[in-house]
C-alpha cells in the first residue's frame, strides 16, 4: 500500500512510525513532514491546508490510504475532497469534524443527549457575555468556539480577568474567527484524563488512557500550550470509571452524531475530568492528541492500518485492539519562551544516542534541516522524548534520562511530567 499522512508535527511522526510497522505498507508520504519523519517517509513540501495540491498529489501517486493528522484540514473538509476522488481517507468528514471545530456545537450536543459535561452558556455578543459574567461565580472558564491550537481556553479567577478574556477572545480576536462565538463554562475540578478512541460510525474502541500537561511551567503554572508532556496509562482511570464512560459518554457520543446525520469515522479524543460527581467531558477532539499519540501509539500492538481500514469500512467491531502491558512517558523539549516568543534555527545534537535503543523514541515536532543539512529548531515544541518502562515510575525515569541525550541552545522542558504518578 501507498499511504499519505497529512501534517508535520510530533503526532504525525508517531503515526508515521506506527504505519511503517505495518506489513501492508510499501511507501509512506508525509505532507509536509519534518526532519525526523524523513527517516520513515518521503516528505513532500505541500502544506496541510493546500487542499487542491494534496488532492492532485494523492491522485498522481495512486494513494491507497490517506491519514489526516491535523485538526485544521479535517474541520476544513479535506476528507470530503479526497473521498470525492475515490481516495480512502482516515479522518472524519467536515460535518462530523465539527465535534472539535465548534465547542458551542459539542456543548449543545452533550446537553441534548444528556452526556455529562460542565454547565455552560454560549455567547456571540461580548456585551451579553459581560452581563452574564458580572453575576457569575468564580473561577470560570472562557473558550473560543473554534480551533485555537490548544490555546483558546482561559481560566478566570475574577470578573476583571473574565472581562480581559472577553476582550481578548471576542473583541481583539486573538484567535481570529474562532472567537466569534464564546463558550462560558463552569470550572470543574478533579483529575484530567485523555482517552483516544477509534470510531467507525457505530462502534467505538478505546485506546489506552493518557494524561497531558498543558501549562508551560512546572506546577501547572504559566500559559496554556499545545502540551508539554504526557504519560500513559493514567492510574486514576480505573476499570469502574472506564465502564461508566463507555455507557454514558463514549457510545452515546457516537450514537448522537449518527442520529444528527453526522456519522463519525476516525478518532474521537475524549478529554475528561474525573470530578467528585463522576467523569465529565472537558472537550472533544477529532484526531489523535499531540503529545498523547507519542505515548499511546508506541504501546499499540494491533496493526494500525488494519484498524484505520476497519474504521473506514464500518467493521471495527471485528478488530481486537491490543496494547502492551507497560507504560510510557513523553517529555516535550521546547524552545525557551514557548508559547510566546522564541528563537528558531538553533542546531540540535544527540540524535544518534537513540539509535538501537529499544523502548526510547525521539519524535520530531518543530524541526527542519538547514542549508548545511543540519537539523535545527523550527517551532515552539521541538521534540517529544518518549520512553517505555515496566510501570509509570520506570518510564518516567527513562524518559527524563533520555532528555539529557539531546542538546540545543535554548532547550526548555518541564521537570514534573508525570509527577501525579507518585500520588496514585
UniProtKB/TrEMBL annotation:
Cofactor: Mn(2+); Mg(2+)
ATP-grasp domain location: 107-313
Enzyme Commission number: 6.3.4.13
Catalytic activity: 5-phospho-beta-D-ribosylamine + glycine + ATP = N(1)-(5-phospho-beta-D-ribosyl)glycinamide + ADP + phosphate + H(+)
GO MF term set: ATP binding; metal ion binding; phosphoribosylamine-glycine ligase activity
Pathway(s) this gene product operates in, as recorded in its UniProt entry: Purine metabolism; IMP biosynthesis via de novo pathway; N(1)-(5-phospho-D-ribosyl)glycinamide from 5-phospho-alpha-D-ribose 1-diphosphate: step 2/2
Pfam families in the cross-refs: GARS_A, GARS_C, GARS_N
GO biological process: 'de novo' IMP biosynthetic process; purine nucleobase biosynthetic process
Biased composition (Basic and acidic residues): 211-220
Positions of the UniProt region annotated as Disordered: 209-230
Keywords annotated in UniProt: ATP-binding, Ligase, Manganese, Metal-binding, Nucleotide-binding, Purine biosynthesis
Enzyme class (EC, first level): ligase
Family classification: Belongs to the GARS family.
Name of the protein described by the UniProt record: Phosphoribosylamine--glycine ligase
Organism encoding this protein: Sellimonas intestinalis
Lineage of the organism: Bacteria, Bacillati, Bacillota, Clostridia, Lachnospirales
Amino acid at each position: 500500500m501507498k499511504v499519505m499522512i497529512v501534517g508535520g508535527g510530533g503526532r504525525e511522526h508517531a503515526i508515521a512510525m506506527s504505519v511503517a510497522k505495518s506489513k501492508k505498507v510499501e511507501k509512506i508520504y508525509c505532507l509536509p513532514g519534518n526532519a525526523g519523519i524523513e527517516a520513515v517517509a518521503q516528505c513532500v513540501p505541500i502544506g496541510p491546508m493546500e487542499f487542491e495540491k494534496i488532492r492532485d498529489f494523492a491522485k498522481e501517486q495512486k494513494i491507497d490510504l490517506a491519514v489526516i493528522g491535523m485538526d485544521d484540514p479535517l474541520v476544513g473538509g479535506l476528507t470530503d475532497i479526497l473521498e470525492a476522488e475515490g481516495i480512502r481517507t482516515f479522518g472524519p468528514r467536515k460535518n462530523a469534524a465539527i465535534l472539535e471545530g465548534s465547542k458551542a456545537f459539542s456543548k449543545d450536543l452533550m446537553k441534548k443527549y444528556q452526556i455529562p459535561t460542565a454547565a455552560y452558556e454560549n455567547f456571540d455578543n461580548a456585551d451579553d457575555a459581560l452581563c452574564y459574567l458580572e453575576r457569575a461565580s468564580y473561577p470560570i472558564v472562557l473558550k473560543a468556539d473554534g480551533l485555537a491550537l490548544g490555546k483558546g481556553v482561559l481560566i478566570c479567577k475574577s470578573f476583571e480577568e473574565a472581562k480581559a478574556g472577553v476582550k481578548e477572545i471576542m473583541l481583539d480576536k486573538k484567535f481570529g474567527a474562532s472567537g466569534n462565538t464564546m463558550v462560558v463554562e463552569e470550572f470543574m475540578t478533579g483529575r484530567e484524563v485523555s482517552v483516544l478512541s477509534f470510531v467507525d460510525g457505530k462502534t467505538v474502541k478505546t485506546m489506552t488512557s493518557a494524561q497531558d500537561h498543558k501549562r508551560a511551567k512546572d506546577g501547572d503554572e504559566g500559559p496554556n500550550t499545545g502540551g508539554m508532556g504526557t504519560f500513559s496509562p493514567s492510574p486514576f482511570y480505573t476499570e469502574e470509571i472506564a465502564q461508566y464512560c463507555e455507557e454514558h459518554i463514549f457510545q452515546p457520543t457516537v450514537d448522537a452524531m449518527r442520529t444528527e446525520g453526522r456519522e463519525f469515522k476516525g478518532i474521537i479524543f475524549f478529554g475528561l475530568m474525573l470530578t467528585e460527581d463522576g467523569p465529565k467531558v472537558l472537550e472533544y477532539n477529532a484526531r489523535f492528541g499531540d503529545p498523547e499519540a507519542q505515548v499511546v501509539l508506541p504501546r499499540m500492538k494491533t496493526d494500525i492500518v488494519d484498524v484505520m481500514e476497519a474504521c473506514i469500512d464500518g467493521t471495527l467491531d471485528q478488530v481486537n485492539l491490543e496494547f502492551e502491558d507497560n507504560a510510557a512517558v513523553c517529555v516535550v523539549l521546547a524552545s525557551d519562551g514557548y508559547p510566546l516568543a522564541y528563537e528558531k534555527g538553533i542546531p540540535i545534537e544527540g540524535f544518534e544516542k537513540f539509535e538501537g535503543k529499544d523502548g526510547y523514541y525521539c519524535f520530531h515536532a518543530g524541526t527542519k534541516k538547514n542549508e548545511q543539512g543540519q537539523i535545527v529548531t523550527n517551532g515552539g515544541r521541538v521534540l517529544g522524548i518518549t520512553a517505555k518502562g515496566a510501570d509509570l515510575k520506570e518510564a518516567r525515569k527513562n524518559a527524563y534520562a533520555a532528555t539529557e541525550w539531546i542538546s540545543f541552545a535554548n532547550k526548555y522542558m518541564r521537570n514534573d511530567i508525570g509527577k501525579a504518578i507518585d500520588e496514585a
